[in-house]
From TrEMBL:
Belongs to the TRAFAC class myosin-kinesin ATPase superfamily. Kinesin family. This is Kinesin-related protein 1. The lineage of its organism: Eukaryota, Metazoa, Spiralia, Lophotrochozoa, Platyhelminthes. The keyword ATP-binding applies. Keywords: ATP-binding, Motor protein, Nucleotide-binding. ATP binds at G78, Q79, T80, G81, S82, G83, K84, S85. The keyword S-adenosyl-L-methionine does not apply. Residues 1-225 form the Kinesin motor domain. One of its GO terms (molecular function) is microtubule motor activity. Signal peptide: none annotated. It comes from Schistocephalus solidus. It holds the Pfam family Kinesin. PROSITE patterns: KINESIN_MOTOR_2 (PS50067).
Amino acid sequence: LSLPLWAIFVVEKNDVKRFTFDYSYWSHDGFKVTESGVFVPASPDSRYASQQTVFDDLGRGILQNAFDGYNCSLFAYGQTGSGKSYSVVGYGVNRGIIPIACAELFQRINENKDPSKAFQVTISIMEIYSEKVHDLLSVKPKEQAALPVRQCASRGFFVQDLKKVPVGSYTEIEQRMAQGSERADSTGATGDRLKEGANINRSLSALGNVISQNCNDSGDLTGRY
């Protein structure tokens, strides 16, 4: 396995596979820990990618597009242990894309000097597990029935009855994210590994169909995924 620039080469015996990406990051070594506990490159020539580097490449454009009036999504996909949660959410002082984006969101709001502009920020946190959607900001998510996913002409796809909580600062968002994380364990998302595996395989199959049709430029998707 080698990782030069934006390509990954996987060598198995005499077979070499090349995978090309817009960005490719290294985080295995080449870092040091600051007094505050933040991981940063150990030297100017280190290839270690810090959380801030990942945000600057991937998150800053999302935040700008949101301010420009576009709906934005951040989708992390990969095998268990590949670093999805760490990159997106982070751990401790090593904040991921979402916490950094939220902090910069309110920084930009506070720097606004245009009296004709007003901002309102709400947060929702949901969990999708075994084909069921749960509201993690609900008071008792375990007792709440799975929320239905609807579609309408004006709103597109949405989760019916998903709670939207107004927030006025990054600190409030941190508190809500901690609340959602604590309640994720109380939704009953444990136990039946066979059913869990079947649902995961079905989801992966649907995702594969979507990617395949997009790559083939087929226009409309032949199903709702």
